[in-house]
Every structure is written in structure tokens, then in C-alpha cells.
Amino acid sequence: MGTLSIAAVCALAFAGVALDRLWGEPRRAHPLVGFGRVAKRLEATMNPDHDAGHADPDDDENGVPARRASSVATRVRGVLAWLVAVAPPVALSAIAVHVLPVALAWALHALLLWFALGARSLADHIAPVEAALIKGDLADARMLTSRVVTRDLSDADEAAVARAAIESALENGNDAVFGALFWFVVAGGPGALAFRLANTLDAMWGYRTPRLRYFGWAAARLDDVANYVPARLTALTYALCGDARTALRCWRMQAPAWDSPNAGPVMASGAGSLNVACGGAARYHGVDEARPMLGAGAPPLARDVGRALTLVKRSLAVWLAVLAVAAAASAFI
Known about the structure:
The protein has helices at residues 6-23, 31-46, 65-99, 102-116, 119-135, 138-146, 158-205, 217-240, 244-254, 263-274, 302-330; strands at 277-279, 282-284, 287-289, 293-295. It is mainly alpha-helical.
């Protein structure tokens, strides 16, 4: 973080978290909305032949060479598109925090962390699901949960809706809170910004659909790399803030079976810490997907949705406490 001391990192981290709690995400003119529009235009412009996985008239009799060349070219375009989207704002923010006066540079660091964090937004989206389930309004709970997950919940029962909300809370605890904090500690506000933008592109491009399978490959892999360490620190913190023994066992035994190398540890540890059974079958884009089980115990109920949010909040408190201890220790070194 350049010239920032450990104490400054701690103070600015607290400031960013405080701003997120106070303001949440911007309701109007959200910068990510503009970034999303740019990302959509980039994808439409740089991924015109999105059916590269289909046979090409110029393929040989087995349909291999042209298809392979097309998939490689599409992946290269995906890398270039990622760089075009992410590099300019991150580079500009990095230059700004080095050339601005100290007070303004510190303010920019805190604002960039606020932009990258989503703790309040996570609570604002998940807490109403718990409230709807407690009231017995399953239709409203389905609708609210569908805003934060991509799976089909049209005929989901209470346990399935609670399971989806809990999984979203646990996974987004890493993506929207701890990943941003980790990269803020490593590289300041520009690091947190880079993480948020990379995570956004993964959410937009990182799907294995015919259109995005090759183009979004770079976005998905780069997000995996950026999340590798934060996800494991998140999983460890979830374990420490609940049933640690069960959480660590679930992490060790269940996470390797999960498709995502980072979501697996986070959700397995979190579900184990809460002593609820998550994972299992879910429907995506009209197709039933048999997913591995996560966690242990009974299927989740309405109150378990709130418990998942509490786990994220306690974990955030642990991270901030560790930063405070590090800052205090640095004063004696």
C-alpha cells in the first residue's frame, strides 16, 4: 500500500466498513451500473462468434481444427476484454492515490474500499428473506431470494428457499466483504477496486453457456485466482465463529467435490459452522443440477437465514479485530 503504515491500513479499513454500514451501496448512479454497461458492450463487440463450440463449415471431417482455433481466439478476446474493462480504472486509481495530497489520498483509499464492500447490501437483500419465511409468505420469500441467486425457485419449498439464501449469504460474504478487505490490506483502495471489478466480470461473463464458455474463461479463472486466499481465510473465520470442528470437517471432506475451488470451502465451512445441510439438487436455466451436499445437520429453517447473516457479521468483527491487533503491535516494533 505504498507509504501507508499498518495503523493507517487499519484506520482506513474501519473507515471503509463504517461508510458501507452508513451509506450502503449507492441507490442512484451506481458506478457498477455504468461498468456493467461497458462490460455488456465489450462482450457484444468482442464476442460476435459466440457459437464457437458448434461445428464450423471449415472444420475437417471430425470438426476439430477450426473449432479449436475458434475457441482459442475467443479466449484471447476474453482476456483482452477483461484488461480493457479492468485495467484503466484500476490504473487511474493507483496513480491518484500516489499523486494526491496525503489527506485526499487517504480519503480515496477509504472511498474505494466502500465502493468494493457490500456488507450492508448483503444484509439488505438476505434479511427480508428470513422475515418473509417467518411470516409464512413463501411466494414473497421465493421472489426475494431470486434477486440474489440464479437458480429457479418457482416451486421451491421453505427449506429450499432458506438453503439458497444461506448459500448466497455465505458465498457473498467472501465475494462482497472479505475478498475486498483482503485485497485492500494487500494493495489499498486500487486493490479492492480491482477485486470488485474482477468479481463483477466473473458474475457477468463466467458462465459455461454456449455464448460465454470460452469468452468468459479468463474472467472466471482470474476471479478464482483473486479469491483463492481470501476464500480460505473466510472459511477459516466461519469455522472459528461457530461449530469449528464440524466446519473444518465439512471443509476437508466436502469442498473438493464442489465445482468452484473457492465457493466450496466457503460454503462447506459456513454450513458446517451453522450445523445446517446445504447444497444438493438445484435447477439452473431449466436444467436440474445434482450438486454435492454441504454442511451437516437438518435442512435449514427460516431462522437459519438470520444465523448465516450473523455468522458473516461476526466474521467481519474478527477480521477488524485482527487488523486492530496488528496495528497496535506495529506501534511497538
